[in-house]
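--- STAGE predict ---
source: upstream dedup step, 1 unique chain passed
mode: sequence only
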Amino acid sequence: MGGPPITLVRRLLVVLGVANLVVAVGMASGQAWASGWWPWPDGPLTLAFVGAILAAIGAGSLWAGLSGETGSVPAGALDLAVTLGGSAVFLAGVGPGEDRGNLTRAATVAALLAVGNLGLFLATRRRPQATRAPLPRPVLVAFVAFTAILLAVALGLLLGSDRVMPWPMRPDSAVLVGWIFLGNTVYFAYAVLRPTTDGYRTQLWSFLAYDLVLLPPLLARAPDLPGELRPNLVVYLLVLVGSAVFCVVVLLRDLRRARWVTVPG
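--- STAGE serialize ---
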């Protein structure tokens, strides 16, 4: 039948979810113990972004583990395999400097985590789905839009554009953020290519957590951002607010209709 026992997967998801949320809070608030996980010192908005990504991973993992909606586990694992694998290659190729030892260690850890997530993807991708009901049309349309937006941002950052994000970012960080967005692209594209209801709420919880963590610091620092980046800021805020509203509406609708699907075990 394939894949590890669902009980083991769910317990692991809960533990990883809590751990990611703890680090996300520390990263988003600029705590030294958390920001040290980023390979170099960076600006507060970049750290807040990384914290929002960790919150997305944590919220999705926690929801999947607690609810039993683990259909998005392969997508999440493939997302992290792409993000961490690309980051490992980039960090390994950064030129020599006083932090070369730290970067080598960061590249090694990222590579090991990428391999682990690839293994998780291979172990879970053939697990029987809890339901084969088609993905609701509004969710499918939204996921197609998310995939297109994330891919455009990822390619812009990886190709070296400095006009993508709404805040100034060091070039090295822009590449890592580009790999994060490329992994996120895979996360939603997987659901588009395999459009069933098995786990889509996990992805909505992930996006909602990302929105809610990043919005406050971005709004707080908006007046201090360079004027030439204001159009980027407006577009970015529209995406954050729009996706947050969409996620809340769909999740509340499903709650009213009692459409939660749980997996025994």
